[in-house]
Structure formats: structure tokens, C-alpha cells
Amino acid sequence: MGKRYDVVIVGGGHNGLVAGTYLGKAAKRVLVVEQAALAGGLSQSDHVIPEAPDHMINTGTAELIHIRASPVMQELDLRSHGWKTVETDPMYAWLDPDGGSIAVFRDPRRTAEDIARYSSADARAYLEFIELIDGLMQFAGAMGKGDPGVRTAGNYLELAKVAIRNRALKTKLQLISTAPADQLAAEWFEHPATQALLLGIVAGAGPFDTDGNGIAYALFGLLHRVGVSKAVGGMRMFADTLVSAYAASGGELMLNAEVAEIVIRDGTTQGVCLVDGRMIEADVVIATCDPISAARLATPGGLDRVTRTRLEYAPAHRANVGPSLLNVASSQPFRLRRHRRTDGVDLNQAVGLIGTADELRQALVQARRGLVPMTPVFSLSPMTNWDPSIAPDGQGVAYIYLPVFPVDVNAGWDSAKAPAANAVIARAADYYDGFDGELGRWFETCSDRETRTGLTKGCVTHVDFGAQRTGAKRPAFGLGGPEPLARGLFLGGAGIHPGGGVSGGPGRLAAKRVLDYLT
Ligand SMILES: Cc1cc2nc3c(=O)[nH]c(=O)nc-3n(C[C@H](O)[C@H](O)[C@H](O)COP(=O)(O)OP(=O)(O)OC[C@H]3O[C@@H](n4cnc5c(N)ncnc54)[C@H](O)[C@@H]3O)c2cc1C
After folding, report:
1. How far does the centroid of ligand 1 lie from the alpha carbon of residue 394, in Å?
2. What is the mean pLDDT of each run of 10 residues along the chain (519 residues)?
3. What is the pLDDT of residue 247?
4. Distance 164 CA to ligand 1 centre (A)
């Protein structure tokens, strides 16, 4: 009989490590079991391009935003565990094909000045819009305090205060939390360039023509409040920081260990069984894999039918649209060809947004139908411009994120993948120098991500984002509260509140729920 743990955590992604660290600090015996050779999950980097073995490539996340606003940073003292980041301002720039641009700065007023170069009405609207988003964030902050499944008198009081403070914005706030992001962009902003900027940034949150997707604009509030960091040395730095904090809390980490079953007998969780047949016993299991996978891992009959059904029906890239990622390693740096500004702002330090609002809309229609978009729309992060340490001197890494791409294609990815990557690179090369020196590329579609990581449909938020899947409704109505799915079984990854993105919030919430459960 092996050692018995208080808590076994399935998955050593960032949320699994965060949950483990809180529990370790609370003197629980914790084991994180990770199937991959490295911890970090979707927040990792590696030397994945054989032709460019010295280029460090982010294989998922590249930007740290939510965690900058998260209490996890301070509570787990991440800065003392090797945390090293770089910040850029402007953070993004929409690149007009003719050489013009709109940059997004930390300061919303400066951003509005940039928008004014296209439309002064949009510049005024932007500042009003950001004020509205600030109201939205105040509500989110009040609702996010504590467990969304447990409302206390204090929560209601705080919500009431926020409601009174923002009463003049009530109707607009209701609209923003129920309308599609695309509708809001078109309603608020007259110029296609402004619409392209807004949609280009929120497109990563899923189909922007879906009701309730407008809350994705909260990202703009975060950008102006806390900004964006990039991990120095690639996301490996971030994963290593979390592993270090976790180890310091006394937790154990088992790598190359795939869980085959979350063992539930007579309604009570017993632990996990690995694919090699080893059984690890624990009082509690936290599954930080996606909820659909968690349901499949549970012993047949271990979850009641309603719970299992609701988990299995949680949407994961249900519209067949999700982000693909193309990294290119080059012997040259990536520099903009014609977007040089006369005001001293260096757009090579920003993430470039390429594509019009109409191209994004067309891409969405095509991706839904299982077609590779005729005109690829993407953001390009010239990573080595702010972190030269990830490639040999003078060389480059371009991280190209395609927010609106099909999960499955009708033609099959075997034949569609190479032409799709070539089309992206052809368009990117019209904006940036550096592609002539291409050494190799790493292109991962959602379907590839599912194969590599087991993540259902390669869904980067585990469960689709939207107003109907937030708070206590995430991952599903009735399952977003503190009660375990079966005695001793909790979820703890991006599939629970506050959702996808690198915030550590789900891991922190799961740890709190488990500590309450164990006392
Ligand atoms: C291309 C891309 C770009 C992104 N960009 C950003 C960004 O810029 N900013 C941002 O905030 N977010 C971004 N995200 C989203 C963000 O990375 C994720 O939402 C977040 O990392 C999820 O963390 P997690 O710990 O909940 O889950 P994951 O990172 O998915 O971790 C789950 C872990 O569980 C493990 N696991 C699964 N099944 C088993 C099993 N049976 N046995 C053992 N282990 C198992 C997996 O291997 C994995 O390590 C991006 C994601 C991708 C893919």
C-alpha cells in the first residue's frame, strides 16, 4: 500500500500548482499528478522546433494579464520564486495595411488619442466605453469575492454599493453583459479600424457574435488597470516559478504520470489510478483537467447521472471555432516593414493585430463551417523584440495567434494544415521582415492540442466563455458552487470560476473549497 494523501490533484497546469501550494501551506499532504514531462499545462514553453533547438517557444499562453490583478501573486509570494517579466507599452497595435496604426497604451486617454487619428467620435466613445467597462469590472470584482456559489450578506451589501455607484450606467451595463461583442463594437464605434482593434483583441474569448460574449471587453479594463507582462525566458519561467512555490509549500509532484481513473466507490472518492495501474489514495481529488475529461475519468457510475450529464454537456469550442498557434523561429529578428511612427512610439515592442473587422467576421463564418479562413486574421508577437534571451543573438521568434480558426476542418487537417500555415506566413511577411530567415515552425491547431494534451477540443478555456458560464454557472448550472461533485471530488481548472486565462483563480477557489470540506 502506497502513501496516502489528503489531496491528489489531477493536472500540474498553473491552476493545479496554485491549488497545491495553498493546500501545502495549510499543512495538507498534497500530490500533483501530471501526465506530461513538464508541469505548466497550457502555460509552458519548450524547444519544440527541431531545426531551431535554441529558440524557446511558448506552446500556449504568451501574455500574463489576469494574474497581475490576482491575489495569488502576493499570497503565494511568487516574486520570490524566480518570477521575471517584462512589460511593454503600447501593449497592442492594430496595423492598418497602409502603414497607419492604433496603439493600445496603459493610459486609456493616450489610446483614445490614437483612435482619434481615425475618428474623433470613436475616441470620445472609447473613453466612455472604458468607463462602462470599469463599472462592469466593479460588479465582477464584487461578485468574484469569495465563492460565487455562496452569497453572504456582505456580498449582497457590496453588490448593492456597486449598483448604487453605477446606477447611471445600469441599462448600458445590462446590454454589455448580454450582447455579442461584435454588436457592441458596431454600436459604439463608427470606424472599421476601431472595430478591428476591439474585435481583434476580444476574438480570443470565443465567437464574438454570441449573446453574452460582450463581457469579454472586461479585458480592456484589465489592460488599462494592470497592463500585460511577458515571461522572460518564455513561459517556462512562469511554470518553474509555480513549481518552486509549490515545492516550498511541501507538495509533491509526479511527472509523466497519466491518471486513468478517478476512483469513486459508493459515492466517495478514494483517489486516482494511473495508466500503469498504480493506485494513489487520497481523501480528496481535485481535477484540474477540463470538466468533460474529469467526467470521463470518474469511475463509471461514480457520479450521479445529472452531474455527469451536465459536465459532459459543458461546451468546449462548441461552435467549431478556437485559437490555433503558429510559432516561427528565424535567423533574423522580426521588424515591422512600414509601420514606423513619427511620434517616437516603437510598434515593434507591441503585439501587432493584423486583419480588418470584416475579415474577422468572415473568418468566423468560415471556421464555423469547417473551412480554413480565406484571409487569415491574427496577432503577431515578435517575442524576441522584448525578450532576446529566448533565441541566439540577433535571431527571432514570432508567436502568431489565430483567434478565429476551425477546430475541425472538412478537408481534414492532414491536407489543410500546411497551406493554412503558408497563407498566414505570407500575410505576416507583408507586415514584418524576418520571415526570409525562417529556420522552422511549430503550428498547433485545436485538434493537435487535443491530441497533445488530451484537452477536450483543445479548448483553451476548458469550457466556453460567456455570460451563461460564469460564476456559479461555471462549468454548468448547479455545479459551480462549493459542493463536491461526489464526496471528495472537486474541479479546480479553468472550467470553474473565474474561468480561462492565467489567473490562478480557479486553483485558489478549489483550494479554499477543499480546506472548508476537510475541516
Ligand atoms: C495558444 C494559447 C494561447 C493562450 N493565450 C493566453 C494568454 O495570452 N493569456 C492568458 O491569460 N491565457 C491564455 N491562454 C489560456 C490559458 O493558457 C489557459 O486558460 C490556462 O493556462 C488553463 O490553466 P489550467 O491550469 O486550468 O489548465 P491546463 O493548463 O490545461 O492544465 C491542465 C493540466 O492537466 C493535465 N492533465 C490532463 N489530464 C490529465 C490526466 N488524465 N492525468 C494527468 N494529468 C492530466 C494536463 O497535462 C495539464 O498539464 C492561452 C491558451 C492557449 C492554448
Report:
1. 31
2. 89 98 98 98 98 98 95 96 96 97 98 98 97 89 83 85 86 90 97 98 93 93 96 98 98 98 98 98 98 98 98 96 98 97 97 98 98 98 98 98 98 98 98 98 98 98 91 95 98 96 97 97
3. 98
4. 38
- Per-domain boundaries in the chain: 4-84+234-315+459-518, 109-223, 317-453
Q: What grid cell was written down for 303?
A: 457520479
> Nearest 5°: CA angle at 6, between 253 and 30?
20
493 lines ligand 1 (CB under 6 A): yes
Looking at residue 336, what is its pLDDT?
Answer: 98
Using a 6 Å cutoff on CB, does residue 377 contact ligand 1? Answer: no
CA distance 143 to 137: 10
CA triple 60-441-202, angle to 5 deg = 40
Please give the grid coordinates belonging to residue 377.
Answer: 486574421
- H or E element, residue 346: none
CATH class for the domain made up of 4-84+234-315+459-518 = alpha beta
For residue 41, report the distance from its CA to the centre of ligand 1, in Å.
5
Q: Are 273 and 263 in contact (CB under 8 A)?
A: yes
**CB-neighbour burial class of residue 117 (10 A; exposed 0-12, middle 13-18, buried 19+):** middle
Structural element, H or E, at residue 428:
helix 413-431
Distances (CA, A) of 401 to 68, 137, 195, 207, 338: 21, 26, 19, 15, 21
Report pLDDT for 198: 98
Task: With beta carbons less than 8 A apart as the criterion, state whether 352 and 335 touch.
Answer: no
Q: From atom 53 of ligand 1, which residue's Cα is the shortest distance away?
A: 60
Pair 387, 87: CB distance under 8 Å: no
ipTM reported for the complex surpasses 0.95: yes
Strands 279-287 and 4-10: parallel
Main-chain phi, psi angles of 445, to 5 degrees: -85, 175
